[in-house]
């Protein structure tokens, strides 16, 4: 930007201008008072420029001054209805959970998706018909169980089976004979039909067909390929599933930001780079969930809209999407993430176990279509969007008796002693669990021919071998790794640095947002608004090791931060209504997170971040900056929500005209407004932070402008 700095105007303002943008900056506080100055007509701009250098003050009166503005809007009716409907499942004292809440928001967003994208190209349609015919042909040839394709857990499958699987997916992605490529063409089908096939009875049968379609597509490339599934219970058994070997270059690649290793390294999806953000929210499947599923015998009991947690399989499966995060999280783009099919193949296999259970209980799974099926697209006779297939056809036994079957997952070590995989081990509960990537690599190293060692390596060898599979790498192992990577000697200072990033320490990860708006990913289309979070200490917080001392004796019990110790504080916090948080786990650790989401109400786009709060404090606060679509072309309507670490919905408060804070729904309209101060958002992250702070250059006091925060969340 070409910058013209003028002499000081009135007070301490400076004008910086370029061709279309002019800003006035307060020199003392460094604040952007006037964010955008636009000439009324472009021609006039040149005129202004000439006047500018001579008579700036006169010029100021001829321009339009625009500020970022935020106001509250009523909650969208369909969202409100959904929230109310969900609330009927709860006791009045229960708090609303993030999965309930997120479910409604997703439903709303899928309606937008439907409006925005409706067409499908013909080429894809013809290809789908061809793929469906493959299944028909296969089903017609009478087969016995020996000829069925066998879908296996990705870690239990053989190296050959895994390589077939990854190869065919890669070949589909590389084949651009159908736009944009054969892999993403199927993802687009999932996107365009998302609204019709989620939140209702057709969810399981429809996804079963989609899986057979991609399996057939895969076999067009690699005839021996069969889908694999991801049993995330194996990772749920781990202390830190994000360190599972599943999320490593040995299997599907890392899950921290852009995927740069493994078979899907550097994949570009129609919504930008392939991204994962695992373990920030959601949860994996666990044995309890699957057992719960098998206590029901009717499809209606595990399907939307009739089912209730913990039997709601669609909501439960959504938690896994959220756990992986990134591309897999928003339904409308989830199928662009290759792990989508691994996860859904498992959902499908668990549904098959449910169906077997139905048969044992004299329910015919082929006719058990829910009476309460949801929207019309879930009607048993509605077309699936795949040739002539109707929803009810998805319940046919044909698929699992003629085409494929699922190999039983490995769960108990008593059944499968070694869990049948080098990626798995038997844990203390005698359950199969995934190895961490570190343990896996170490095991592979020890099983290999020992390389000729240099003296310094020999010293630590015994120690390394003695270590348990699940133990994180020691300093020595890390040093050893550094050396293997070609560095000669790691100095002591580096050892300390390793400690800080050592995988055994739970290092907080940040979110890689997609910055996707209506299918175009670019962070320049976003602006940032400050959001404050007020958090009250969780009552299930384990006491910290800081106790009061009386007469020289440490008084164990409540830690000194606990409000229970203090009469006045206890009294003031006591009267604040709190939600029933029975289900929350025992919490420990000195910091915790409040997840904040921004979801477009008139655009398709989400932004996620979290506020880190001090878990010790009886009550504390934190400020973060949330991305929303830039209102430069059209007003932005957005819903902001926040969830405490236990998944409870926090109450939003919005600023009133008087400057006070009042309860609100979190639905906001972000616009540009004439001559309205203060500016309430930053055009980028840095500007948002700068807007909130008056930082003097002379080392003086940095001032925080609290009243520029339009929305706050109270998590009590
Ligand atoms: Cu789906």
TrEMBL record:
Coiled coil (UniProt feature): none
Residue ranges of the TM segments: 51-70
Pfam families xref list: Tyrosinase
Keyword ATP-binding part of the UniProt annotation: no
UniProt keyword annotation of Transmembrane present: yes
Residues covered by the Tyrosinase copper-binding domain: 198-215
Keywords in alphabetical order: Copper, Membrane, Metal-binding, Transmembrane, Transmembrane helix
Cross-referenced InterPro entries: Di-copper_centre_dom_sf, Tyrosinase/Hemocyanin, Tyrosinase_Cu-bd
Alphabetical list of Gene3D superfamilies matching this protein: Di-copper center containing domain from catechol oxidase (1.10.1280.10)
Record protein name field: Tyrosinase copper-binding domain-containing protein
Organism: Tegillarca granosa
Lineage: Eukaryota, Metazoa, Spiralia, Lophotrochozoa, Mollusca
